[in-house]
Amino acid sequence: MTDITRTDVLIVGAGPVGLFAVFELGLFDMKCHLIDILDRPGGQCAELYPEKPIYDIPGWPSISAQGLVDKLLEQIAPFKPDFTYNRMVSSLEKLEDGSFRVTTDENEVFEAKVVVIAAGGGSFQPKRPPIPGIEPYEGKSVFYSVRRMEDFRDHDLVIVGGGDSALDWTLNLQPVAKSVTLVHRRPEFRAAPDSVNKMYAMQEMKQLEFQVGQVTGLTGADGQLSSATIKGPDGDVEVPCTRMLPFFGLTMKLGPIAEWGLNLHENLIPVDTEKFQTSVPGIFAVGDINWYPGKLKLILSGFHEVALMAQAAKRIISPGERIVFQYTTSSTSLQKKLGVSG
Amino acid sequence: MTKLTFIAHDGTHFDMDAENGSTVMENAIRNAVPGIEAECGGACACATCHVYVDEAWTAEVGEPEAMEEDMLDFAYDVQPNSRLSCQIKVRDSLDGLVVRVPARQG
Questions:
Q1: A79, A102, B17, B61: least CB-packed within 10 angstroms?
Q2: How far apart are CA A232 and CA A235, in angstroms?
Q3: Residue A191 CB neighbour total at 10 angstroms
């Protein structure tokens, strides 16, 4: 039997707005569990522009995106949220008692009375490389990640990219594959210099090929690749290729949330501006993923949204309980929750 | 004001006056030039504002910095005159600059 993780509020997305939701919900004693597809908190702030300064966080004339994430983690620490990383939520079902059962792509099961979608621009997924006609090969001989190294045994492998994923898999799969060709559009790499040196050493020993250029064409049939055309500085080169691993970074897609039966508006989730609730009571959407008249995709707007959402979530989780509006500055009970009393 | 011209993939010209200090990408977005997506909003984090700098202007515009080169790895059909338009700042010496929009962004 599958273990079920139960929590008051399940938050989909651990970006700045998902993180601050923990704070506002925590003030009302709601326990939160966050799920994110990345391997760490921060969402776009951590993945896309950690070093970039943000100038419109109230009270911070300038703060780096990663700095903001770090401060938010510090701010929500008293509420001891739980995190599950490297997972995408796949399905959601409403249970008889009104709560929700959410399953991840690795079949973990969560049950919560309230679900908060704070998924920003959607979940980060591997970017399809700009190679014409690649679609029929995807999942059959073109893969965006390595689940089992055995799947590459005795294959003519072409790895495309210049980052750490490309170089790491070039080195790790070389002993398994029949041949390895690394393709990168220039001789400079983003990957760790140590991996690059190892790759060059292996090239020297004729254990692998490194081609400068861009993949411009694929040949094969029924989803099975046989060769790839590489446009390099000296013209086109044809290399044997029965498996390809392109590493072209990440893009954001709404993903399975689109199948949850919520009303959508151009891939965004419409909400009201009192509770930030979706078309399904008990499911809220906050931050960049929601839509309402006048919506601005600003972190500070997301912060406002979670404060109001928390009030509505509390009414669902503790029906009938009177909600007292309090300030953290003066309320001893809130200060106790924050661990700053006395 | 500095004059900029974007040539969309279908050949349509978009002429505009740009303020010095703004980025070439910002001017494309303001003038709704098709094919400039700028998904990340100018953080040099997505390579969806890729342009080809007209050959007559490559020397004046200059070479991309290391971080931009890294991002260009993710762009479609990168050429020696490829740049990310969010990393080109408009200035007097670029008056008359012409850039072309590629067939697609990634």
A1: B17
A2: 5
A3: 20
Q: Is A163 on the interface with B (CB under 8 A)?
A: yes
pTM: 0.79
DSSP letter at B49? S
User: In this structure, are strands A100-104 and A89-94 parallel, antiparallel, or unpaired?
Assistant: antiparallel
**B2-100 has which fold?**
Ubiquitin-like (UB roll) (3.10.20)
Say yes or no: A26 and A96 in one domain.
yes
- Taking the Cβ of residue A190 and every Cβ of chain B, the question of whether any pair is shorter than 8 Å is answered with yes
Are β-strands A63-64 and A53-54 bridged in parallel, bridged antiparallel, or unpaired?
antiparallel
Q: Which of B40, B78, B106 sits opposite A127 (nearest CB)?
A: B106
Residue type, B5: T
**Interchain CB distance below 8 Å, A186 and B69:** yes
Residue A77 and residue A136 in one domain: no
| Integer Cα distance of A294 and A285 in angstroms | 16
Which tokens is B86 given? 């969010």
Residue B43 has pLDDT above 80, yes or no: no
For A260-286, the pLDDT digits (tens) are 999 999 889 999 999 999 999 999 999
CATH number of A223's domain? 3.50.50.60
User: What number of other Cβ atoms are within 10 A of residue A253's Cβ?
Assistant: 16
Domain end point (choices A222, A248, A274): A248
Phi then psi dihedrals of residue A290, to 5 deg: -95, 170
How many domains does one find in chain A? 2
Whether residue B42 has pLDDT greater than 80: no
* Nearest-by-Cβ selection for B43 from A49, A190, A248: A49
The answer on pLDDT for A118 being more than 90 is: yes
Does the pLDDT of residue A342 top 60, yes or no? no
**In what helix (H) or strand (E) does residue A11 lie, and over which residues does it extend?**
strand A4-12
